[in-house]
Design brief:
600 residues, Translation Initiation Factor IF3, Rossmann fold, Elongation Factor Tu (Ef-tu), domain 3, eight-stranded mixed beta sheet, eight-stranded antiparallel beta sheet
Length: 600
Amino acid sequence: MPARGGSGSGSGRVWGMEPRLFELFGSGAGGGLKNKNGTKGKKTSRGRSRGGRSSNNPPYLPPEAEEGNIEYKLKLVNPSQYRFEHLVTQMKWRLQEGRGEAVYQIGVEDNGLLVGLSEEEMKASLKTLRRMAEKVGADITILREREVDYDGDLPRKITEVLVRKVPDNQQFLDLRVAVLGNVDSGKSTLLGVLTQGELDNGRGRARLNLFRHLHEIQSGRTSSISFEILGFNSKGEVVNYSDSRTAEEICESASKMITFIDLAGHHKYLKTTIFGLTSYCPDFAMLVVSANTGIAGTTREHLGLAMALKVPFFIVVSKVDLCSRATVERTLRQLERVLKQPGCNKLPLLVNSDDDAVTAAQQFAQSPSITPIFALSSVSGDNLDLLKVFLNILPPLTNSEEQEELMQQLTEFQVDEIYTVPEVGTVVGGTLYSGICKEGEKLVVGPTDQGDFLELKVCSIQRNRSACRVLRAGQAATLALGSFDRSLLRKGMVMVSPEMNPTICSVFEAEIVLLFHATTFRKGFQVTVHVGNVRQTAIVEELHGKDKLRTGEKAVVRFRFIKHPEYLKLGAKLLFREGVTKGIGHVTNLRGIGTDASDA
């Protein structure tokens, strides 16, 4: 999984983003924009007719793809031994493509035609599928069944089945979800309910275990980044702290892990929130909106950040137990209006049933324009199960081939957190962007203030608070460095293979779009630059071909870091801010240490 701050595929295409994205930033910008589509926006709640049959069933699904983790099977009734072995090999391939997960559509032809099976044929097909899953060490879960109208009067069904491989050697599927939203929208409380397995008492009891500092407990406001885990076993059942004492037990019994990155909602902690989004490479973002206040405070800004960094997001409307139905519907209409405005161009999909949750998870991963919306309560538990169904089925964004390519590259670990642990020594936390990292491996860390790299040895590795011998690309972990001097480390450093020749620079150029600025953006302006895990103040040395920039304009700009050189990559996504000023772009040119403006 390429880090969002790194030079992943297409990360250099800043102009590919919506041209009106800047309308999400600034004071009240774009709030009252009308939907250009007018009456074309379709209602998203899915009506269901009597008999449990969907009222708008399509006669076709898209044709089966050769790649990916979705397999169509018309029927699996009493296959021969040779055919059975072939089917098992096929299942292994689909599981590999989905990194341990595959979805089987039974009763569907390869061209996507919904034929359906009789009850007897469906029972026999599911029995064969269960045998196939046992052969590869996986479990199956029926996601949904639906009746289809095909030739004949007999009722015919198609069944959608999730196949998930039982984890071996700690290789569970790990998805990272950043949690965004305005202060007091119920982010930490929702995470507390999901991970602890107990509903909130309405006064914030569920969130107490998530806070890291005394002042957070006293104020009830998150100011730092914390991580919470929610597991699903191979049968799709929730594994959390309610029936597992420790994180190690959750890791042992889970085959899929959702790591929530709890970010701060208050505006004064915005730099921490941006760092969490750029540095921790989330796969998805969950935007929490309070039903009683609607889109308020930093909600619009957080939505804009997720859009700018191209992090797919879904929305949770919380606290529905505090409001009347009319208030909840008003908030949903407000969200729909913002999502459909030209800066977003999203299609809201309100999730009201398990069937909707399955559809939302599959379409959300396939189409970047779909935005699922959940309306729930952490106190009464209303619709909480729909969110769990969605998270259980949510597939990874990268397939096994992309993962393998990243693992073949040289080791690169981004340092996001630094600790000193008694009897262990210096510990760093972060994400392995590429390669493989093993216990006992020798790496170099830097750049220092002088631009040097220092040798060190990885003594041990922990992932989700449990020991791990091998770390693979895209995984987050903490590495113990023994007696290595902590004062030599800082956030924003990288640990890389000694063979790598890292690109260190103090001056760089970037192609940028100014998302919001009150007046004009000029040479000499100082901004805080975020590139991956790098966060440092830089001065604008030159705007190529322009004297000044206004909101929505673009240019190539030369920046100089004011403190120390940093490790950057060409094409890396860049986000800068200063007060209400915000911009986004990508790195186009790197210049070495000590480069004068006259040389540049």
